[in-house]
Amino acid sequence: MQHDKAKPFQTPAIARRCACTLVFAFAVVTGCAAKEPDMLTVGGESKHAAGTLLEAQAGDIACYLSLKADDGTEFQESAAFEICEDASLVGKRLKLSYSVENVLAAECEGDVDCGKSDQIVLVSAVRVIE
């Protein structure tokens, strides 16, 4: 008397589902589930999500940042004044957070008593990333 070898319990659809679940679980455990975006849209403007800070300089209406993107291109952003105050950020790769803010109008030419304002997209916060 000859016995048939036991066939696997899983059907091809179940096997695919299990394989997908295993890949997803591996991605979550290893931290590679999702890559951060390179660009984002804020206030209708396209902005870099991260960059290495080359220089920060206080100006009349904002802190002015010079940064380098991961692809090597340099770009500038206006930022909250507090960011200029932290010199330890220079040379670090930063995750950039943006918000639309009111600032002293350009036509005021630095006169804080001018009473006019403009709305611009500012880097409102940064976080050092590896």
Please give the number of β-strands. Answer: 7
* Helix-strand string: HEEEEEHEE
Q: Main beta sheet, described?
A: 5 strands, antiparallel
The helical percent reads: 10-25%
Mean pLDDT: 80
The number of helices is: 2
| Coarse morphology | globular
Q: What is the C-level CATH assignment of the domain at 39-128? A: Mainly Beta
Protein name: Lipoprotein
Question: Could you characterize what this model shows?
Answer:
The protein has about 130 residues and is of the alpha+beta class. The chain has a domain at about 40-130: Beta Barrel (OB fold (Dihydrolipoamide Acetyltransferase, E2P)). Helix content is about 20%, strand content about 40%. The strands form 2 sheets. It has a 5-stranded antiparallel beta sheet. A hairpin with a 5-residue loop joins strand 4 and strand 5. The protein is globular, with a radius of gyration of 25 Å. The termini are far apart.
